[in-house]
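Hi support team,

I'm opening this ticket because the web form for multi-chain structure prediction keeps timing out on my end. I have pasted the exact lines I submitted so you can reproduce it. The total is 889 residues across two entries, so I didn't expect it to be a heavy job. Is there a limit I'm missing, or should I split the entries? Thanks in advance, R.K.
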Amino acid sequence: MIKQDLKKYAKYFKNYTELRLQENRNIHISIVDGDIMGNSSSTSSGLSARVYQSGNWGFASNPVISSRTIKEAIASATKNAKFLQKKEESHQFQLSGNSAESDKDFTTQKKKKTKQELVDFMKTIDAHIDKKYSDISSHALILGLLDMEKNLLTADGSKAYSMVPRANIYAKFSLKKDGKPVELANVMGGFGQFEDNFGNLDEIYQKLAQLYESVKKKAEGVFARSGVFDVILDSKLAGILAHEAIGHTTEADIVRGGSIAGDNLGHKVASELVNLVDFAHHAGDDLCPVPVFVDDEGTKAEDAVLIKNGILKSFMHNKETAKLFDTKPTGNARAYKYSDEALIRMRNTAILPGVSKLDDMVSTIEDGYYLVQPSNGQADSTSEFMFGITEGYQIKNGKIGKAIKDTTISGVAFDMLNTVTMISDDMCWLNAGMCGKKQMIPVGMGGPAIKCKVNIGGK
Amino acid sequence: MKTKKMIKYCIDSMLESGADKAQCYINKKKRHELNVESGEINLFRTNFDTTVKLTAIVDDKKGIYSINKEDSDSIAKAVEEVIAIATTSKPDKANDISPEQPPQVFQSGSTNMDANIMYDRLEEFLEYAKAKYPDTIYEQLILAYDKNNKYFMNSNGVDLQSNKGIYGMTAMFTSKKGKKTSSFNYTGFRTQELEKPLQDYGYLDELLQQSSEQLHLKSFPGKIKGDIIITPHCLTEFISYIGHYLGDYYLITGNSIYKDSLNEQIADSQFTLHSRPRADEIDDKKFITGDGFVAQNNTVIKNGVLRSFLLSLYGANKTGHDRALNRSSRWVIEPGEKSYEDMIEEVENGILLCRFSGGRPNDNGDFSGVAKNSYYIKDGEIQYPLTETMIAGNLAELLKNIVNISRDGIDFGSSILPWIQFSDVVISGK
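Hello R.K., no limit was hit. The queue was backed up. Here is the completed structure from your submission:
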């Protein structure tokens, strides 16, 4: 139903128009202490049309996909754009961009698991935790699967079909220490369907063993001291820093909204060791967690190099901001549901690896912290950020010490990145991120470990 | 197929296919939305959608399947799917559906929107804001009208319906002058009619005023244990934290800081927290709970004593406690006696917390984060807006350390909240 030839509807386009058919399919299974608390699936599909006329946008959507509803949505979106045209002064300019074509289907080639097999898989992991980790007071497992299937036709000739899946297992362990719970969570999986992510139970058990070791250490943890310290931010934190604190300030609509990045294009905003890229679909030879080949405006997606050797080089654009900034669109226009309009969104945002070894980086710190696992993160237009830290360790005399209890770190990213003195030569991706900006959307975040100075909330 | 006939068909089909208990929830949604980007109204959206959510319980095993289609083929496949999902589950005696209740139809708000009125109100606001706050930029401004027709029926004979129309606005803004940029801030409100200028709703005008002042920032001097006054706008976040600890997950796992505190004093006696989804003073009403009961107003904390957990039917069956009369976030906090100005005067050394950017409190209630868009208070007077200032505390202790609650509150349409002054919070500058 989603994959069909849309060209026959082009004759109904009277202005610049995007027609998108989309289906999102979700599966959610949650097990808490052996009980299945959630076992649900959902399918949401429909079509939308977005029309650009004299500087105004009209948008309309319908959950029913048929020739009639497609024509109605195009007419309704056109009517909405005209409604604004009558009231608003027009810009009278053409949108930037060239046409592109793409057909990418990442459906697994393996035999699909049945719902029973998925539930049994989760029950097996649950039974393993029960048997192996008897001192865990509470544990939760969540399987989350998302398939996003899109089919796009634009008035300037772009045609794009994609089926991009994601599969994650989230595990949370709680221990009681002096009668009080101590918790830690981890996420596994990422790009691809269940069958392409979770073929090997032993890999999952290894990650659960690491989670268990970490929560045991955290139970004996101490409070971090407050103040500015030398720290190593592990790769997950570098990824969330790249996304939240820098990435958002360089989305062109946020730049128009007054972000501090707008004043710093071409200026030094970070140590010359820092390179930061929003990858479209591949980082080197490797496919990224959220590959975008043609975006939801029909633009061929290209990497956006945001920071090169510490200099802020560019912003992320859709067709409209590219025109306003007199540059090319970057393929960052993305929508989550069929009924959402495309907004400027990051895809796979990462700080690039450096040349140092993690052990060498730790050895250079006399009194600081190794921060490993973020909970949530927020940043604003000034690049001031806050990240919750759920796993971290003291560094004393160049060696990893005791675990720390939950804390928060904060700073101004464009200041903090100037304190970066070492970057590790490896990197990993955070494959479960959802970004909220009017709509939620899957994003990839990645990075190496970085040594810098940061403000710790402490107690 | 008419909606109610279709729901009956769904329930009968699930029962015929092996379900012991079945329920069906349908929400028919229409949304009209005007969007402002960088100060201009540049997008008008019209969305139609339907949620059809089927729940089946087979031998105490529960499954849920949702689609957004109403045609016969899709419904037939959905029935087949939900039975298959339920069959894969694990038996749990706590799985249940709501018992028979008298059929009711609820009505609230306007059933029709007027795009011209929406446009005129938005344009009026933009003119006002551009004149009064010329340095403020609107990253995102959305004025929407939502119409929802909800139907909830189950195999116990429950037959509830609500028809609601509501306007809502969300605003996200930053002030910028030269190279000085404020932190962004955001707010919103809900209202049944657009009968007054948008800036007169909720806390919008005050926050725009604050944003325009927040271009020249300084850090909090030093590190102290002092007072914080949390604004109504920011209080919503802290109330949601309390709600987490009173909900299903934390109580079922035994990890809630309040698991043994029912009918115990958990907050200062000044503090009374209601959840009032059907109160006259709440514009954005809620009539039906997610598990199929008629929502009723509920007092969660009365004079500091915890009166109710926020458990679903499943959570109640699992823990042995009572089900909450509703689990909506229509919060109303009883006003206190002091004026906002008097509260500021009482603070010797502290901050006015206008936005909190923080990690979620951990299982013990410990929290820390950045005081955003906030002000330093010294000797009873607001001194200057803050940057790079952190606060830390414990949620359970915070509730016991209430000093004052303001007599005035802000009506957001979905909640009515005052300013609350708390003592003994760790505040630290850079």
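A quick check on our side: The longest strand of chain B covers residues 40-58. Let us know if the file doesn't open in your viewer.
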